Amino acid sequence: MTSSSSPSRKALSKIACNRLQKELAEWQVNPPSGFKHKVTDNLQRWVIEVAGAAGTLYAGETYQLQVDFPEHYPMEAPQQRPADNDRYVRNCRNGRSPKETRWWFHDDKVIHI
Q1: Which of 10, 14, 86, 104 has a Cα-to-Cα distance from 58 of 20 to 30 A?
Q2: Which residues form the UBC core domain (predicted)?
């Protein structure tokens, strides 16, 4: 894996690169139940497949979550965006980033507040 990134993002610091390589190795040895890391050549952007929980209306569904790690990870939190990011951004209030978005979960419904 490399720390290649798009021109708009800064390259990972050495600390961030080492930390992400360690976390990815741990993930590959002991992955969280219901989550799968899609292998890419970009250490700075992870694409995670999330399986819908059994016994819910999401059972049998698979969702993708994109996690972008900043230059100074872990001192700065990663940003998480859904695969349909364009729709998310158009509907996001006040142009907030995902880190500033509050979510409320109730009865298998997600409400953006």
Answers
A1: 86
A2: 15-113
- What pTM did the predictor assign? 0.62
> Quick one: which of 50, 54, 47, 11 has its CA closest to 34?
50
Task: Check if CATH label 3.30.70.100 holds for domain 33-95.
Answer: no
Phi/psi region, residue 32 (left: phi>0; alpha: psi -120 to 50; beta: rest), is: beta
The number of angstroms, rounded, from the C-alpha of 107 to the middle of its chain's C-alpha atoms is 24
Which of 19, 22, 46 is CA-nearest to residue 35?
A: 46
Cα-Cα-Cα-Cα dihedral of 68, 72, 77, 82, to 10°? -10
